[in-house]
Amino acid sequence: MHATMWEAILAGILTMSLCLSIHALFMFAVLRSQVHFRHRFPKVTGISLVVPSILLATVLIVISSVLQIAIWAGICWTTGHFDSFRDASYFAGTTYTTLGSGNQPLGPPYRIFEPLAAMNGMLAAGLNTAILFAILSNLGRKRSGLDEFFA
Fold it and tell me: Which of 2, 63, 99, 121 is 20 to 30 A from 111 via CA?
């Protein structure tokens, strides 16, 4: 795949939009799962409520992140800068998490994928933090049995 700078920017923005749309769907699933869990187990309180709620949310967040990294790996792999999808996945994962390896940066005009993937990961991390905080706050107010902690 060979593109102009503007085509690469557009491809990166579209990829980021797709990833954030997927993330939004997973955030909706996280919230729905919390409602479903509380309706299904209305008498569960304390640690028996908090641990499964947070674990379920975390699993969905991880699945969402892995899917987004795979999407970024796919677009990065099509640039021809990587010998394998595995290498592209490592690059996408370290970029998405803002760890950054610097082992094999993308060349022009695809360099724009790096900051867009990192921005995507940072936005997702912020949303993840907000969702987990909302879940903990809600559990604390409802029936966690941890009133002294959430007071």
Answer: 63
Give pairs for 56-60: CB < 8 Å, separation 24+.
56/30, 57/30, 57/33, 57/131, 57/132, 57/135, 58/132, 60/26, 60/29, 60/30, 60/33
Sequence-ordered strand ranges (E) for the chain: none
Give a yes or no: residue 56 inside a domain. yes
Tell me the pLDDT tens digit for each residue of 6-50.
999 999 999 999 999 999 999 999 999 988 888 888 887 777 778
- 116 falls within a domain: yes
- Flag whether the pTM goes above 0.70: yes
Residue 148 covered by a domain: no
